[in-house]
Amino acid sequence: MTLHWTKEDTPRWDADKQRLFGDAGLASVGMDRPARGAHLPDEWWRASDDAGDTVGYGWLDAEWGDAQITFLADPARRGQGIGGFIVDRLEREAAARGLNYIYNVVPPTHPDPAWMTHWLTLHGFVAGTGDLRRQVRTDPQA
Prior knowledge:
globular; seven-stranded mixed beta sheet; about 25% strand; Aminopeptidase; alpha+beta; single chain; 7 strands
């Protein structure tokens, strides 16, 4: 499966996001449900497959030389490398901006924070002060 990465120039809460996130997905990233059509802060990207189906989302909030990232893979397609693809692309975005670290805060509302922390650790993140972080590589993998 080939995955594609598309920046959303004007990110809004739409039916596709609602379909993928649902209540559990919103809890896993610590978001309240936005109103349909509401503008979303920060930078958002969509991951899609060859058929054009959305399989995940990633977003980045650059602050103080680092980037907080959050992401979600389609729950029905987990285990297919989508999360890793999204995190790697977010790292590329951070590298292009000259940022130092990407980090993720696993919210207390996450349905399985131990699993998420383990997943991030397996992908090179280390515990920081209240977050998990990875130094941005200047030449992230293609």
